[in-house]
Write a structure and sequence with these properties.
The chain is α+β, with helices and mostly antiparallel strands. The protein folds into five domains: about 80 residues; about 170 residues, Immunoglobulin-like (Sandwich), CATH 2.60.40; about 40 residues, no CATH class; about 130 residues, no CATH class; about 35 residues, no CATH class. It is built from ten helices and 19 strands. The strands form six sheets. It has a five-stranded antiparallel β-sheet. Strands 17-16-18-19 form a four-stranded parallel β-sheet. A three-stranded antiparallel β-sheet has the order 2-4-9. Strand 18, helix 10 and strand 19 form a beta-alpha-beta unit. The radius of gyration is 37 Å and the shape is elongated.
């Protein structure tokens, strides 16, 4: 109730200031008219006083009322910022108006002036109608929770018409106009000191290596955008919403950011493409691809074999002998117990609940391995983690800067954003890796001779850039 009363008080104050401004401008206009009359009558003193009064009243209104009203509507108008692009049809239409206008001026034909006026009015009507359609639209974009590189996913774009009676026609959801940002900075660069500097190379007396301080202009980079296409909505009913599915495909892992969207239309005459910018931010972390590759097929049998040997070699005891169930494997049948009891019996081992595997991503330093080898290692780590997450395995993860959560999607998110560590970061984590009952699959770039000896007995190593 208090908020409503405050709102009504502010509205009342705004209307009072508005009418006072109208009164002040009316007085200023009247003073200006009388100053003109006084000038024509030859009364210079009255002309100066009335003209000064008109300027003073207009200045007072401009300084006191206009900023106040502008602040009230600023936030509302920011979301209604429009971009305009002239279409080919619009250019042809303007050229036709120009031709008819020149003909009307040369001939003085009133009918041609009427035609030109009607054509210009059509442009005005088109602008008002398209702006009214775009202002009444509300946009929502839903992205999938988990996105993998190289896989097609569906995003849902929902457009809602807020008007009570009038529908909307021919509206598209588009990315906002790209504005490239540039920044300048001084940078030392290698150069050649030559004398004479303007002479050809073969005629220069002196040429020695040198460095020079130059002003470099570079474009400020940022994360790539999520959305680059166009979603078309031919018809939106009044007070209704329409949803469209949009296919997205990201070639590389990483962070993708959409800083805004736009809703555009050519309605009703296609003279202009009018786009309203909407400040709706979205971001998506694209995981590395987990599709089976030749490299995965090469290392997976070896990792699985050593993992199974490690599990079997830990001396797990027989847990119990029980009746056979349809989902049991035939290799677990205890034939002696079955022959003695006359019914199929199977053996259960405690090791079935202790298949512990840890994926260790020892992030190499920048420049330690080539970029393509680093990306292959990240993709292989993601593929192996995804494979064993679907098995009967107690899976955990370790990496520099990783939270340690055993959630597969948390680790995939880490791999989606990971980059080679800077030179100032701590060295390899293998020296401080704590040994547990887990079997380790370790991705590293360290030389074999510098790896702690204790890790060799319980780990399988995958070296960045090593041919397999």
């Amino acid at each position: 109730m208090r908020a409503l009363l405050n709102s009504l008080r502010f509205e009342r104050e705004a209307w009072i200031r508005f009418f006072l401004a109208l009164g002040g401008l009316a007085l200023a206009f009247t003073a200006a008219v009388f100053s003109t009359v006084s000038r024509q009558a030859g009364n210079l003193l009255a002309t100066a006083i009335l003209a000064s009064l008109a300027l003073l009243l207009a200045g007072v209104v401009g300084l006191t009322t206009v900023p106040y009203l502008a602040r009230r509507v600023a936030l509302h108008r920011v979301r209604d910022v429009f971009d305009y692009d002239v279409t080919r049809e619009g250019l042809a239409y303007l050229a036709l108006i120009l031709v008819i206008g020149v003909a009307a001026l040369n001939t003085g034909n009133n009918l041609l002036f009427i035609v030109v006026s009607a054509m210009l009015a059509a442009i005005l009507v088109s602008g008002v109608a398209s702006a009214a359609i775009l202002r009444a639209l509300d946009l929502d974009v839903g992205l999938p929770e988990h996105v993998f590189a190289g896989e097609t996913v569906l995003a849902r774009v929902t457009l809602r018409n807020q008007r009570r009676r009038l529908p909307a026609f021919s509206v598209s959801v588009v990315p906002p106009p790209v504005r490239q940002r540039f920044h300048r900075r001084l940078r030392w660069e290698r150069s050649i000191f030559a004398f004479p500097s303007k002479a050809p190379v073969e005629r220069q007396w002196v040429r020695v290596p040198d460095i020079a301080l130059r002003l470099v202009t570079a474009a400020s980079g940022g994360p790539p955008a999520i959305f680059s296409g166009r979603v078309y909505f031919p018809y939106l009913p009044a007070r209704g919403a329409v949803a469209r599915d949009l296919e997205l495909n990201f070639e590389r892992r990483g962070l993708y950011v959409q800083e805004g969207f736009g809703v555009s239309t050519r309605f009703p005459f296609s003279f202009l493409v009018k786009t309203r910018r909407i400040a709706l931010a979205r971001e998506a972390v694209v995981y590395p691809s987990v599709q089976p590759t030749d490299e995965l097929f090469q290392v997976l049998p070896m990792i699985t074999g050593e993992f199974e040997a490690f599990v079997r070699g830990r001396g797990h005891d027989l847990y119990r002998i029980r009746d056979y169930l349809p989902e049991d494997s035939a290799r677990h049948v205890d034939w002696k117990a079955s022959a003695r009891t006359g019914s199929l019996k199977v053996r259960e081992f405690t090791r079935e609940d202790e298949r512990k595997l840890r994926v260790v991503f020892d992030n190499p330093a920048a420049g330690a391995v080539p970029g393509d080898a680093y990306e292959r290692g990240v993709a292989l780590a993601a593929s192996l983690a995804w494979h064993f997450a679907g098995e009967n395995t107690d899976l955990s993860f370790a990496a520099p800067g990783y939270s340690g959560a055993p959630n597969i999607y948390e680790f995939l998110r880490y791999l989606g954003l990971v980059a080679p560590r800077a030179a100032g970061d701590p060295d390899s984590m293998l020296d401080r890796l704590q040994l547990t009952d887990d079997y380790n699959v370790i991705f590293t770039s360290r030389p074999r001779g510098s790896i702690p000896t204790a890790l060799w007995a319980c780990s399988y190593f995958l070296f960045f850039g090593e041919e397999r």
